[in-house]
Automatic annotation (TrEMBL), chain A:
SUPFAM superfamilies noted in UniProt: Glutathione synthetase ATP-binding domain-like (SSF56059)
Single Gene Ontology MF annotation: ATP binding
Single GO BP term: microtubule cytoskeleton organization
The protein's name: Tubulin--tyrosine ligase-like protein 9
UniProt cross-references to PANTHER family, sorted A to Z: TUBULIN POLYGLUTAMYLASE, TUBULIN POLYGLUTAMYLASE TTLL9-RELATED
Family of the protein in this entry: Belongs to the tubulin--tyrosine ligase family.
Cellular component, GO annotation: ciliary basal body
Pfam families in UniProt: TTL
Organism (species): Struthio camelus australis
InterPro entries cross-referenced by the UniProt entry: TTL/TTLL_fam (IPR004344)
Record key words, sorted: ATP-binding, Ligase, Nucleotide-binding
TrEMBL record, chain B:
SMART domains associated with the record: TBC (SM00164)
Domain Rab-GAP TBC residues, every copy: 218-439
Protein source organism: Struthio camelus australis
Gene3D superfamilies: Ypt/Rab-GAP domain of gyp1p, domain 3
InterPro entries reported for this sequence: Rab-GAP-TBC_dom, Rab-GAP_TBC_sf, TBC1D19
PROSITE patterns: TBC_RABGAP
Protein name, as recorded: TBC1 domain family member 19
PANTHER family referenced in this protein's UniProt entry, alphabetically: TBC1 DOMAIN FAMILY MEMBER 19 (PTHR16110:SF1)
Organismal lineage: Eukaryota, Metazoa, Chordata, Craniata, Vertebrata
Length: 342, 493
């Protein structure tokens, strides 16, 4: 419901309407982090309407069920997709029946934030241990994936420029496997702070927290919730030149293959901490706000940095999120388990 | 401009001008400019001293630097002849157009550089330094424990820990530091908040001297770019931007052999770095212009080095046809681009990035690859490193020497690069804060010794140079400020 692109759109649209009804337009605008998306072929006519309203902008077509950047292309003219529609039946490779594959057409972010002339997106990990009530954890580490080539809108056909998935980058002609083309989010946060100052960067990261929470809230009611289930999501976020974060997609089985030593360690630690939280040995009390590299960001309501879970929040609390901050997980785990033992 | 008023009286003109300079901020700018000159230029020598003495007072050092330069130039010229590539040539118009179009993405170019080799690498330079001898010094003693056991065998004066403690007094245990007292466990009210507030005040006052004092305790990330620019007295005026654009057009019009060396260096070092690869294009934009910048020649008055001279084709030996090659007199070596890479984290506007780098080069970096007796020169840094290690970790030093792993062989490359590419970027920037704050490179030698001290237990167990290198291969997890603080202020001597 969250991870197939068309369902995500549906759920977000519905949630936004609900928010607008319940809390007003201002609150609903907080959901405007998802680029305009239309399911194809179902919403073809709605899409054409929107397309005609904004001539000249670029759109991206993505198959909902596939991953690793397969089947994705960019277009600017309706002619491009009319040709593509005619181009034979597009089948879902995994199914045997010749079923028309579902795609989404999404507005392409034309002004991505560039570093060194390169486009990048962020991969952030969110662990949900319960949907109703919603309990979500945010991992402090994550990474920024860079495109190997310089960004330009002139080369729509150049997959390698626009798609920052490591899977696609791996097949680009000048890909050097030693390079990795990733930055840890800590580096990115430092870079942005040096360039824009701490306040703007705080706002950017707070907006990202908003994305995680709202997207999860939008599917709260439709996901089959089970106390004994957990879900680790990989969120893909794109930052534009105005320092606004956009949600590209949510991955249910984020790639755990490692492209470098640093990457390997991140993913190992991520898994270890996930298992700590899932807590099959029943060591935790359930009142923890931090376990290893995970910070509890939502516990049926916002979580504050100060105080413990039971204290009521005051007006100006600081959210318990530390994305891109120092991750001294080993130390924290040691202290945590020592205090639980006692 | 505001002096064209009828209120201006001739009697009080002197005072009025002084006031005007103060209120318009020009007094501060003048002060900053003077302060900058004081930092960069050596104190005036004896009037009878010849100009070489300002470059380097010791004759044997001058001689050694001269022979080293001859070697480098010979290597460059022979590469030039071998490859049949001229040292400099004008680009055909079509190529100029192409380069101009690609200016912001020169990294996408993949010229065939396989035949080019770096002119020299740090280890070649170390061999030269190891062979330095003062011909006037004869101590006649057999080598023993009391002699210097390291690779550098020249009797330069270097500081000991009590002197370093005094010089670096702001790094002591009782003074707040960024890199220590801003860690996650320390509440920001203790130090960080106040330090940031003071930093903002220093920037508002635009006072170079105050900024230099301030950064000794580290720069807050958001203020660092402005603070460094203030200390280096870089304001990116229209003239400066114009100058940079002029250099850029020089790059477009002429192709230099060193350009290929720069390309190769960037591709071999910065492009392969996990964090700096992103800034590849900026590095070309800075280094290609740097090679053509004749204003850099000014620093040779106080550097022991002399720019290599080359002659227009066919006019060998005729002084009228002598030109400095490259135009800025600096021949890049393997790893040179790493001096620029960390600055890309702070400055994004090419002309400003360029000026900051140029100023850092003519103040500090040039000392890391020229032979001189200056306390911040690489020779003194090596000697300082070895002396600190031998004095305070004699067992470790002796052990490493016995297994053929002279410590300087490992730490040399760190110091030559000012640790760029070896430390994590945030740690490197904290280190460079102190280089600017203390206007000295000695901290590099102290850090190198502190790293050995930190890993001493593991190093005592190794039995070969390769194993020692392996223990010290990865410095990316080190926190520099605690290491420095412990080594200087918390080690029992």
């Amino acid at each position: 419901q969250l991870t197939r692109k068309n369902y995500l759109v549906k759920n977000l649209k519905r949630f936004r309407k609900q928010l607008e009804r319940e809390a007003g337009k201002l609150e609903a605008r907080k959901c405007d982090f998802f680029p305009k998306t239309f399911e194809m072929p179902l919403e073809y006519h709605l899409f054409v309407e929107e397309f005609r309203k904004n001539p000249g902008i670029t759109w991206i077509m993505k198959p909902v069920g596939r991953s690793q950047g397969k089947g994705i292309f960019l277009f600017r003219k309706l002619k491009d997709i009319i040709d593509w529609k005619k181009d034979g039946v597009h089948t879902d490779d995994q199914k045997d029946e010749t079923q028309v594959e579902v795609y989404v057409a999404q507005q392409y972010i034309e002004n991505p934030y560039l570093i060194g002339g390169r486009k990048f997106d962020l991969r952030v990990y969110v662990l949900v241990t319960s949907y109703v009530p919603l309990k979500a954890w945010l991992y402090r580490d994550g990474f920024a994936r860079f495109s190997n080539t310089r960004f330009t809108l002139n080369s729509i056909d150049d997959h390698y420029v626009h798609l920052t998935n490591v899977a696609v980058q791996k097949t680009a002609p000048d890909y050097d496997p030693e390079k990795g083309c990733k930055w840890m989010i800590q580096q990115l946060r430092q870079y942005l702070t040096a360039k824009h100052g701490a306040e703007l960067v705080e706002v950017l990261f707070a907006d990202m927290d908003n994305i995680f929470i709202k997207s999860l809230q939008s599917v709260q009611k439709v996901i089959i919730s089970d106390k004994h289930c957990f879900e680790l999501y990989g969120y893909d976020i794109l930052i534009d030149q105005n320092l606004k974060p956009w949600l590209l997609e949510v991955n249910a089985s984020p790639s755990l293959a490692a492209s470098s030593q640093e990457d390997y360690e991140l993913k190992c630690h991520l898994l270890k901490d996930t298992l700590h939280i899932v807590d099959m040995e029943g060591r935790l009390t359930g009142k923890e706000k931090r376990v290893g590299g995970f910070d509890l960001i939502w516990n049926d309501g916002p979580v504050s940095r100060e105080g413990n879970l039971d204290t009521p929040l005051n007006e100006s609390f600081r959210a318990n999120t530390h994305l891109g901050c120092y991750n001294d997980r080993k130390k924290q785990l040691k202290q945590l388990f020592r205090s639980l033992h006692a | 401009v505001s002096l064209h008023k009828p209120e201006i009286k001739l009697e009080s003109l002197k005072e009025d001008i002084k006031d005007f300079l103060k209120t318009s901020g020009w007094e501060k700018k003048l002060q900053n400019a003077v302060y900058s000159e004081l930092n960069v230029f050596p104190s005036p020598c004896h009037p009878a001293a010849p100009p070489e003495h300002m470059k380097e007072p010791l004759a044997y050092m001058r001689k050694a630097q001269g022979s080293w330069e001859k070697r480098i130039l010979k290597s460059l010229n022979s590469m030039c002849t071998e490859l049949g590539v001229p040292l400099a040539q004008k680009r055909p118009v079509s190529e100029q157009k192409e380069l101009l179009n690609k200016w912001n993405e020169m990294g996408t170019d993949e010229p065939d550089l396989s035949l080019f080799r770096p002119v020299y690498a740090p280890k070649d330079f170390l061999e030269v330094l190891m062979n330095l001898r003062n011909p006037n010094y004869e101590n006649g003693e057999q080598p023993s424990f009391r002699n210097h056991l390291g690779l550098i065998q020249v009797p330069l004066k270097v500081k000991d820990i009590p002197e370093l403690k005094e010089d670096f007094s702001e790094l002591d245990l009782n003074t707040g530091q960024l890199g220590i007292d801003d860690s996650a466990q320390v509440p920001p009210e203790f130090f960080e908040n106040e330090h940031v507030r003071i930093g903002q005040k220093v920037l508002a006052e635009q006072d170079s001297a105050a900024a230099q004092q301030y950064v000794r305790q580290g720069c807050p990330t958001a203020l660092r770019a402005d603070l460094w620019a203030l200390i280096l007295n870089i304001s990116n005026q229209p003239e400066d931007i114009l100058y940079y654009e002029q250099l850029k057009s020089n790059v477009i019009q002429h192709d230099l052999l060193v350009d290929s060396l720069i390309y190769k260096d960037v591709k071999l070092t910065a492009s392969n770095d996990d964090y700096y690869f992103v800034f590849e294009d900026y590095l070309y934009q800075v280094l290609l212009c740097f090679s053509r910048d004749t204003s850099v020649l000014e620093h040779f008055t106080y550097s022991s080095a002399t720019p290599p001279k080359s002659y227009i084709r066919g006019k060998l030996g005729i002084e009228d046809y002598a030109v400095f090659y490259p135009p800025n007199g600096v021949i890049p070596f393997h790893g040179f681009s790493m001096y620029v890479a960390p600055l890309c984290f702070l400055y994004h506007e090419p002309s400003k990035l360029y000026q900051i780098f140029r100023e850092m080069y003519v103040r500090f970096f040039f000392r890391l690859h020229s032979i001189s007796s200056h306390p911040s020169g690489i020779v003194s840094l090596c000697l300082l490193f070895e002396t600190l290690l031998q004095t305070h970790l004699p067992q470790l030093f002796y052990h490493l020497r016995e297994i053929g792993a002279q410590p300087l062989r490992i730490s040399f490359k760190w110091m030559v690069r000012a640790f760029s590419g070896y430390l994590a970027t945030d740690q490197l920037l904290l280190l460079w804060d102190r280089i600017l704050g203390y206007n000295s490179l000695e901290i590099l030698a102290v850090l190198a010794a502190a790293v050995f001290a930190f890993r001493a237990v593991n190093l005592m167990e190794v039995t070969s140079l390769a194993a020692a290198e392996a223990v010290l291969a990865d410095l990316s997890t080190l926190k520099v400020m605690p290491l420095l603080q412990i080594f200087l202020f918390a080690t029992v001597t």
